[in-house]
Amino acid sequence: MESETLVPIVPNLYCGNLYDAENARLLKTLKITHILSVGQFPQIPLCHIKHQYLDVLDMDCQNMIQYFNQAYDFIENATKDGSCLVHCQLGVSRAPTICISYLIRKYRMTLKEAKKTVKAARPIASPNFDFLKQLQQYERLCQSKAQDSTNCDDSENIMVNRQPSYTNGNNMYSCKICRTSLFQEADVVLHCIGQHTHSYKKIRKDIKSDSIPLTCTSWFIKRKDWMGDMTELQGDIACPKCHTRLGSWKWDGSQCSCGTWVAPFIQILKSRLDCPVNANSETNDKVDQ
To answer: Based on the domain organization, do 95 and 226 belong to the same domain?
Structure first.
């Protein structure tokens, strides 16, 4: 997806999409020295630009506020002597949210003022509802800290993530055919079940609307080295040892069987995996993670 002409939100700060971040000519024209990628993306090979990633999904249950101070520090350092591009997949929700949080802290803007400033430069900016609620929390925190002449450092301690948690992140999942260890429970990316069932029903016309089970038949995980080249927009994921097809990836997202839209979409079918075992007692063949 090509971008509109980028306009600075404030001097030396731009908000865009993945296309912008990969457009070497545009980056040179705008004299971009730093890129902040808000999401899970392939490594962008631009050695002359300082790059940082925030592992964030565009989902209502995503704890975004925990990254605001980290993003602030990166942007602040970048704009002192250079220019910073903040981007996500489309430049609509995640990246604008980060830019708004920066304006709230840096310039002591209200949320309303910060949103208006970002939208003036990026008209399609539209943070999702839960991100806006977290920005409201951040606004109140920064306002209270301003009275004490301190920073908004407590934002990382605000718990807004309502995703279920695992009791043991050491469990290892392996290929059902050859028993090669593939990933740990800690690599699983959680999502809210049944969040977009309406659109899912439209896709699955062969299923009656009242019979759709809100269950997940796949795990969605972080990218692993054994998956190989993933520079294409989409493709299949196979076991590195027996080459059994395990799932697929699609960087611009797709729907889980429960109906929730997941982006990026790195899917491993549960039916292709053996029962998880504790990694501390793991005896299966392992691959480089």
So the answer is: no
